[in-house]
Specification:
By secondary structure, the protein is α+β, with helices and mostly antiparallel strands. It contains 15 helices and 21 strands. It is globular.
């Protein structure tokens, strides 16, 4: 197949709706709007899922914790959306058991946890996963032998969902939007609103790869820039606007599976401050999170600092005494700013996770709406609410939201066992077949057909993860990836694998250079760009103490090259 090298540039400039930001919420809105017949431009400064959607805990959860704030509506909504994701994206979202141990020192009593469990089950009636179970002390130790027995009284086991490959969900939703007519403009930064006769009638934007300025027009503009919502427009391009984003940083540590590590997700109370901490098996490793720290700088600069790392290591070592984790065990970190509403004086953990649609008419920018808040889990409902609102603003006949029962592309006709068998029958080895099904669902057959047509594409592009060359072609020809970081971080997730793909980066860059027509200079700048992107992960300096690198993300280019 001849790859299509062209970027999805704006070949038309007038739309019904402009959506700023291709995180999970922006892509969700673009899909819903396109399916309801609107012409929509989705404009993203970097790539699909390059914002906080990639820095989350990747759980699709009802939010047991929100019951403490009596937020039953949000829990019910989240549980309904969780169930929809089990049905509409079964290749990406799986039920996962969570264990919540009880210790004598806990601030939440065991009976309070039990009431929470009963309520959680009641609010998720007609669900896929089993209802909760209570375990005594002995059963808890049998299920999780590494747990500290000191003060342990038992545990509750309940279910939520896990979305290990959040990037793939965002990519599929975005591509479904494009397949239904949406215009996806990646690496295009919105800089200012277009204002005419006192109304917002579009946006000005700049193509970050070519420097080209573009003007896009639409009667409704949705700012869905997650934690960047207050930073999208240059201050001198707009009248003063109220601050909307609260800025609470959350970090996760990623470590190898350690002695005594649980096989369930474990959700437990911190000894230090009573917050709930998670130990999450993720991509054959373990993610430990999260923290809540006020953060006022550019969300793109959020990094895990040493205080957060110490806090998380102390908590996990208290839970699993034989873990004995130190700073040197931290492979890398994920850190992002939650897009929570700005509520000065309210502790971060108490700020509502419900989304709000903020209309800027009162502050002199009618036509502009900002989406504040939301979670990965509830993106579809957020999109439904936003597009309902948009249809009203446009005065258009609303055919109704089509996404509640709509399967994602990779879920159409999805049967994991059967797909693996078919791939095996067509010549894929077991490891490749498993990976393709896990990443692409039903589309795994399309990816493998590239390798069948051109046998060189069946070769491994990255041996540790089992990624084949055909996936590189898939990324650039069918999934709108245009940079090395797009491919390694958001299409194939090689960036999160051992070694971050650096041992294969030259070979991968060669393949992409051929596909995308890069000259030697561009090829090198792509490799440099990928090294720069890796600073997000705060990978340790092999020559220095681990504690020195926390919060810096610094010198990663040099360190990772070493
Ligand atoms: C530590 C942590 C853990 C979390 N865990 C979970 C969890 O387990 N489950 C869950 O459901 N939720 C979780 N969340 C919340 C969830 O990640 C977010 O609510 C969700 O991803 C927000 O998506 P978004 O699309 O609104 O924002 P983003 O994903 O940040 O997308 C916004 C996009 O806008 C783009 N953008 C910014 N400025 C511009 C501009 N000027 N022009 C064009 N584009 C622009 C950015 O590049 C970005 O891609 C967690 C969050 C954090 C921080």
């Amino acid at each position: 197949m001849e790859p299509d090298h062209s970027r999805s540039s704006a070949d038309r400039r007038d739309y019904d709706l402009i959506v700023i930001g291709a995180g999970i919420n922006g892509v969700g809105i673009a899909l819903d709007a396109a399916l309801r017949g609107l012409s929509v431009a989705l404009v993203e400064k970097e790539d699909i899922c390059s914002g906080v959607s990639a820095w989350s805990g990747r759980l699709v959860h009802g939010g047991l914790r929100y019951l403490e704030h009596y937020d039953f509506g949000l829990v019910r909504e989240s549980l309904v959306e969780r169930e929809r994701l089990f049905r509409n994206a079964p290749h990406l979202v799986h039920p996962v058991p969570l264990m919540m141990p009880s210790f004598r020192h806990n601030r939440r009593s065991r009976w309070l946890v039990e009431i929470g469990m009963v309520l959680y089950d009641a609010l998720s009636w007609r669900k896929t996963p089993p209802t909760h179970r209570l375990l005594g002390r002995t059963a808890t130790l049998r299920r999780f032998p590494g747990i500290s027995p000191e003060g342990l009284t038992g545990a509750a086991v309940f279910y939520d969902g896990q979305l290990e490959l959040a990037e793939r969900l965002c990519v599929e939703v975005a591509l479904d939007a494009v397949a239904n007519g949406a215009q996806l403009m990646l690496h295009t930064r919105v800089t200012a609103p277009l204002v005419q006769d006192g109304r917002v009638v579009g946006v000005e934007a700049v193509d970050e790869l070519t420097g080209e300025q573009v003007q896009l027009r639409a009667p409704v503009v949705y700012n869905v820039a997650g934690p960047w919502i207050d930073r999208v427009f240059a201050p001198d391009s707009v009248p003063e606007q109220p601050r909307l984003n609260g800025g609470a940083k959350g970090s996760h540590l990623v470590v190898e599976r350690f002695p005594g590590a649980p096989t369930d997700v474990v959700y437990y109370e911190s000894r230090r401050d009573g917050r709930l901490v998670l130990v999450i098996p993720w991509m054959d490793r373990v993610m430990i999170g999260t923290t809540d720290v006020r953060f006022e700088d550019d969300p793109g600069d959020a990094r895990c600092d040493i205080g957060e790392a110490e806090y998380l290591l102390d908590e996990v070592n208290a839970l699993v005494p034989e873990a004995g984790l130190t700073m040197d065990d931290v492979l890398y970190t994920l850190s992002g700013v939650r897009p929570l509403p700005y509520e000065p004086g309210v502790p971060e953990s108490s700020i509502t996770r419900t989304h709000v649609l903020h209309d800027h008419a009162a502050s002199g920018l009618p036509g502009l709406v900002t989406v504040v808040g939301g979670k990965l889990t509830t993106y579809r409902q957020l999109a439904e609410d936003a597009v309902d609102d948009c249809m009203r603003r446009l005065g258009r006949r609303d055919p109704g939201c089509p996404t509640r029962t709509r399967s994602l592309p990779g879920a159409r006709g999805f049967d994991g066992e059967q797909l693996r068998a078919e791939l095996r029958a067509r010549g894929a080895d077991e490891r490749v077949a498993r990976r393709l099904v896990r990443f692409y669902g039903a589309a795994s057959l399309e990816v493998w057909s590239l390798a069948q047509a051109t046998p060189a594409l069946a070769e491994l592009a990255h041996a540790p993860s089992g990624m084949i060359r055909a996936e590189l072609v898939q990324a650039v020809s069918r999934e709108q990836a245009v940079t090395l970081a797009d491919v390694l971080a958001r299409r194939t997730l090689t960036a999160f694998e051992p070694g971050h793909g650096l041992e294969s980066v030259d070979g991968i860059a060669d393949v992409l250079a051929d596909l995308l027509g890069w000259d030697a200079e561009r090829r090198q700048s792509e490799i440099d760009g990928y090294h720069a992107w890796l600073s997000h992960l705060d990978i340790p300096d092999p020559d220095g103490p681990r504690s020195d690198s926390f919060g810096a993300g610094a010198a990663t280019t040099e360190r990772t090259r070493a």
